[in-house]
Amino acid sequence: MSRDFVLRGGRLVDSGRDGVPLDILVKDGKIAAQMAPGTPVDASVPVISAEGLHVFPGLIDAHIHFGFAEKITEYSSETIYAAQGGFTTVVGYFLNNEAYADVFKREQEYAKTRAYIDYAFHFSTANEEHIAQLKDYVDSYGVTSFKYFMNFKGEEGRYLGLDGTDDGYLYALLKAAADIGEVTIVCHTENIEIVNRLRKKFIAEGLNNLKDWSMCKPAFTESESCVRAMYFAEHLGAQIYIPHLSTRMALDEVRKWRGRYDKVYVETCPHYLTHTEDSTIGSIGKANPPFRSADDVEALWEGLADGSIDVIASDHVPRKRETKLKPLALASQGFPGTATILPVLLHEGYHKGRLKLSRIAELLTSAPAKIFNLPTKGSFDVGSDADFALVDVNREQMVDPAKLGSYSDYSLYEGQTLKGWPVRTIMRGQTVMNKGKITGEPGYGQYIFRKLSTSEGT
Question: Domains, the chain, ranges and CATH?
Answer without folding.
Answer: 58-371 (3.20.20.140)
